[in-house]
Fold each of these.
Amino acid sequence: MDKSFLVNLVDELNKKHGNFIEILEDNLNAAVSIEAKDLIKFMEELKENYGFDLLLNLTAVDYPENFVAVYNPVSTVDNREILVKVKLPKENPEVASLTGVYKAANVQEREVYDLMGIKYTNHPNLTRILLAEDFEGHPLRKDYQMKKRV
Amino acid sequence: MEINKENERVQEELASQGVMLTSVDKIFNYARGRSIWPMTFGLACCAIEMMATAGGRFDLARFGYEAFRASPRQADLMIVAGTITKKMQPLIERLWDQMPEPKWVLAMGSCAISGGPFVDSYAVVEGADTFLPVDVYVPGCPPRPEALIYGMLQLRDKIENPSIVKVKRNG
């Protein structure tokens, strides 16, 4: 995505709602970072006013000092993608669920909850999707201890 | 020794007239061994090799085993082909319970035998024999179709000579 579009978008939204978006420097000129409380507002703006109609990817990263939830809305009409990163605290990571905005977020959030343990508030059915229902723990966290084989 | 010789003589004479003397058990085992109906139970990559074995090049139909039944109620061999995950294990047990006797298990591939290359994972069960009475193990990752055929022929031998290999089922 060309840099001017991103700068434009960020400026317009910052003017509208107060400075809540920060541009991150990367090779694709498409990464922004926001707070967890502004997520729904930002995603709704992107979907309605800027044509980002497809949520391509929803995932999370486990850093030593925090979690980061990563979203990848894509505009299929303008052929653009944007990367949205939300920092979350290590203990009790929670963020609002995007199922109201993008339907695709439903199963992807279940997968992130299953493997990383990030809770998505207001999700219609936040249960394990990949592992067995009675599995304990979140295996893809860096501090998950594997059980020794008998 | 004499009885055996007598036995043979009698059988030869009968055979020359088109009569075979045998026992019901032997006949049943002969029939069961030569018409095993496997259940389609492909879990992972070994399923592809199982399909290839049933295909045209390495034909399972030559031996009478081409009728893969999808329903456990109609099958008598469960070929566990692929990795068993902890989520799948209760379902495999349920399907095993639904199969009518006599039934056998063939563990195909290293994942079904002992967990395979994924045995250290948090979600993999270490082999089918932790919860099923496996009769034949076919090693490989995946085993070649010829290996699977050899395994099924070994199972046929086992079915026809049950006294040679006695399996304790659930103690």
Note: The longest helix of chain B spans residues 145-160.
Amino acid sequence: MTDPIWSNIFKIPGEIETIALLKKVPIFDLLDFLKLRKLVRFLHQRDYRADEIIFRENEPGESLYVIKSGRVRIFSRKDDGTERELAVLEAGSFFGEVSLVDEAPRSAFAVATEDTRLLGLFRADLLRLVDRDPRLASQILFRLASVIARRLRFANHTVPRRETHVD
Amino acid sequence: MSTKTGPLFTPFQKLLIYLASFILGCVVVSYFARILMPFVVGLIVAYLLTPLVDRMESWLGGRLRAVALLYLAVTAVLVGVGSFVFRPMVNQFVALVRSLPGYLNSVQHLIVTSFGTLEAKFPILLEYHVLDQLQAQMGMVAKESIHALPGFLVSSMSLITYLLLVPLIVFLFLIEGPELKRKMLRLVPNKYFEMTIYMMYSIGSQIGRYLWGLIVEAAAVAGLSISAFFVVGLEYPIILGVLAGVANTIPYVGPVLAALPPILIFYLKMNTLDAVYLMVAVVIGLQIVDNLLIKPFVYSKSVDLPPLFVIFVLLVGGTIGGVGGLVCAVPIAGALRLAVIHVSEDIRFRLSLNSPEGRKIIGGVP
């Protein structure tokens, strides 16, 4: 049982859980407790039912999502209608981060496979953060660039190279 | 493979939608204008102060502390400025309102003299009593305008209500605003959430820039006008300069409305045409400085509305909300336009999913 005298009964349990979750996300892992607490106020918690679409391919994209609970399936659809599964993400994972900096449409579908709770960081809120707390915003943007660069390097290693013949 | 269709609405349909939404909004607002106006004013002031409060919150580590400090600072500035500016301004306003009937008589005398000269040159005007009827009409309009002027300026809400209610509303919006916004956003379905966030941001950015631009421009024009009126020796320079600054925020008609009182009052004081020429030159000079120097630096984007629509919007805004309505009408219309654009783009995307190409993409996903 929690000791009412010694334990911190003034902290909001949900907020602590969220901060602990964000600490595990590579984009936010270098932020301290106070900065994460500030960041939480810019996040939007959204609940999705099983099989509910989070976003569709070619839809305008504006946000990064962190999975607080549940599971999300990422897939793309070919011209013949068949699906190509790209990833199945669980609690603690994140997706959609490229749309924070890129205005291109979404490149895949994201669907909740069970009741899922997501934390969304939207580009509009990130731009507001740039204005209100430039130091925090620049730390997030730097880590975001680092994550995207790492994904690009990984893609370079795994995508088979095509040889071209020059006549 | 593209799933995009053509434009959802033709330009004419878009114009009809803007008009319909604006008229509907005005009908609703006009019913509740008396109750809503302090909240609208409070919301606008809170919106403009929110970026500053957010920064202060990050320095001070608490929103209540930030708002309290801001209120202390604003009170100190108002008390300091009030004793130098507000009192003479209020005194001049009262004196000007008291002098208006006298000015009206002088203008009537001027009109009678001018019309007499015209009738002597063109006897046909005397035969058909054209100028007598015109003079009677002008007299009626001038009397009604003067009687309606104080009510127009304060838009049928007492000044005390504004002075007491608005600071309280601003305080509450500043403290509770972010959480209130999050609670309202929770009501938006997931399907429309991203669009809503983006729409709120783009409307907010545009309105924020426009309003700050208006305030800076009004202050700059008021300052320049007061200085110019002092230099030429015009009576009531502070109140006429402030009126010039406020009136200048109204597109198209504002500068003209702002120019008439100084020209008239200066002419009646000096009683020469040279006075008119001088005051016209001063007013034109102020407009040149405003349009060539102040506006380009202050405004980064306009609300991008057709001029005819702006005039219509101003007529509606002035009828509903007086001076406040004239100032707010254009940014509100701009916000509605952005809302229609975002919603129609979202609808277009969703309709594109019903096209044959779209169905291939979404397949059996619910």
Note: The beta strands of chain A are 44-48, 53-55, 63-69, 71-77, 83-90, 94-95, 109-112, 116-122.
Amino acid sequence: MSDLPKNLKDELLLAIARERSSTRTEGTTRFSIGLGLALVLILGVALQHGLPEPSPTRPFSYLLISVAVALTAALLATRWTLTAGGSSLGRSRSFLRRLVWLVPATLAFGALLANASAPETWALAGRDWPAHRICVLIYVGLGCALLGIALFGLRPLDPIAPRLTGAALGAAVGAWTTLAVSLQCPSADPTHVLGTHVAPGLLLIALGVGFGRHALGFRYRRQR
Amino acid sequence: MPAATLIGCPAAQPGLLVPEPHWPRRFPAPAATMRAVQVERSRASQAMDAYADGDSSAFADVYDELSPRLYAYVRRMTRVDSVAQDIVQQCFLNLHHARSRFVQGSHVEPWAFAIARRLTIDWARLEKRSFSPGTLDGVPSKEHGPEADAHQSALLAAVRTELESVPEKLREAFLLVRLEGFSTAEAAEVLGTSAMAVKIRAHRAGVLLRSRLSRFRGKEAPNE
């Protein structure tokens, strides 16, 4: 087996002098800008009708529980997905796998718990069909925008399981989108909430898997 | 403060706390029984930290420390010098582009090897070749004298042959732990699996090899 040719180091040093890359500080700044942009989008959607207020069809207990659960799930999922856990290779695969199914399950549980805290909301089931289309459109639009910011801003990230990391990002983005859409939607119809505020999160997870390898992975480029 | 030996933690931070040896393992250790362990980091990891913080001259140190090991590792998998050189060059370019992602205080080796492994898998897919975790090509044998050398050569040739027939997952773990010198935790990071799985796979590969090489038992090399 031959040794590495000596000119390889010189070629490499020339290449990295030509191709700029962000230092840690610059990377943190870029990350903060991306995070700020995402927060603006989330708040813009969540508060488009003003601050949410309790109503006969959406009591205070329902609002409190649904927002608290969604916000907690979103914060924890974001933290656990975006922080490396002490290694440049990120969280373990088993950890990310648990995160991917736990987040949507928690959101669904939170929605049902909120309905359980206000039994009068069960009577609304199946009544808000016209609102389904609007909420789905808002969810998919906001979710795709947030996921795009995450995938573009974080690349490349994971040399081992970029699809799984993409799925975890999709789950975290889904939690934030659920929170925003739930805040702006006046409906507490359990079928509407589960069908249009929670279930589309699975689409974001699937998109994360689909785009994860290309956006977050390290890829070999064939030399011409 | 004298450096303690590496305890196999994949992302050891300076001042890592571990229980005193006398503390019974089945009980969680209170703070009073914890002692700070100064964990040794490689020069490559320290240089990568400096490079991530913006010290451009540190990249040459990262290259000097890592390139021989990376090249040997990739060369064993690809078996083609030019391809191995290309993959090593792309690996270092990826380290440059992703330097803001390097977690401060972590080890660069698992990260670099995971990137190199991913690039090699990608290359194998593009060239439609089967990915082989590698052989013992290029591993020098000890020299003791003509008879001992002949014995070592025969043993090494036999190990190479038998290693080829060991299942891929077992072989990969065995090579990373026994040949590349990674701890089980670090090898687990590179492979994206658990430390227990790596330990079991490396052990099983060793048992398989020992049983297949039993004809060499009792025939110690002369002058050893």
Note: Chain B touches chain A through 55 residues (CB under 8 Å).
